[in-house]
Design goal:
Blueprint (H helix, E strand, L loop, with lengths): L2 H17 L4 E6 L1 H7 L9 E5 L5 H18 L6 E2 L1 H5 L5 H11 L2 E4 L3 E5 L2 H14 L3 H17 L5 E2 H6 L8 H15 L4 E2 L1 H11 L8 H7 L38
Parallel strand pairs: 1-5, 2-3, 6-7
Antiparallel strand pairs: 1-2, 4-5
């Protein structure tokens, strides 16, 4: 789905909600962030959502109907909005992730009846790095660099430490090799460190003969797509009232009900 089509569909949903006097807050993650927030990709396959606050049965019904009518109106896939995100977040982290996402308040989309905020970017980065540890892809490492860049900007230019990355959502495992690749590509694109410590340790291990990692950095650099640096003005920092206290109820079933045509 191209960004402009997604925006039109979201505006359509927002209008439907607004006409019913409803405003819904949702948390989004995945490719939608690269497409709609960071503008680093022109398309997204889907929008994976997490409920930010309790919705009444009426609100769920209106949201459900609007999503599926937008699907028909704009020719979108039947899973263009899905609840996969809720299954990706460990149940022990769920409340914390929702809380951090709302405090972060990184607006992805906002209109009269609908507000989408980005998931906690630390969680997004750690999730991406875990995926890369299990299976490396060029697309994922580029997305990880974009996420890391945004976090470095938030932290006023300070790189993230390896220890901080490991301790954040510690059940997600990330290899040293992936952190080294991430920092190498980040340094190449932005001429400064994105991850502190990992390169120094790697060089020490090499000198002592403890490790012999062949990452093919030159090939990685040649293949990588160079994205423009994320400058001021790219993000929307609008003041929004925080939604009600988050809750754990799973609302995935509303997107598996009989579709509205």
């Amino acid at each position: 789905m191209e960004a402009h089509t997604v925006i039109k569909a979201l505006e359509y949903i927002s209008q439907k909600l607004c006409r019913k006097g409803i405003h819904v807050h949702l948390i989004v993650a995945g490719d939608a962030l690269s497409c709609l927030l960071f503008k680093s990709r022109p398309t997204t396959h889907s929008i994976s959502i997490l409920q930010a606050s309790a919705l009444s049965p009426r609100s769920l019904s209106v949201l459900f109907g609007a999503v599926h009518r937008a699907e028909k109106k704009f020719g979108l896939a039947n899973d263009w909005v899905n609840t996969d995100l809720g299954r990706q977040v460990d149940s022990d982290y769920l409340d914390y992730v929702v809380h951090k996402s709302l405090l972060q308040n990184e607006i992805v989309f906002s209109s009269e009846g609908l507000t989408l905020v980005a998931i906690d970017l630390c969680f997004a980065l750690k999730s991406k790095l875990e995926s890369l540890t299990n299976k490396f892809t060029q697309k994922d490492i580029e997305d990880a660099v974009v996420l890391l860049r945004r976090l470095v900007v938030i932290y006023r230019g300070r790189p993230l430490t390896k220890g901080y990355i490991r301790m954040s959502y510690s059940r997600m495992e990330v290899s040293d090799q992936i952190l080294l690749r991430l920092n190498e590509l980040y340094e190449w694109q932005y001429s400064t460190r994105g991850v502190a410590g990992v390169h120094d340790e790697y060089m020490e291990w090499r000198r002592e003969g403890i490790a012999d990692w062949s990452f093919g950095f030159q090939d990685l650099k040649r293949e990588a797509s160079v994205h423009a640096p994320l400058e001021k003005g790219l993000y929307s920092w609008r003041d929004k009232p925080l939604p009600d206290t988050p809750y754990r109820e799973d609302f995935a079933e509303i997107f598996t009900q009989q579709r509205v045509y």
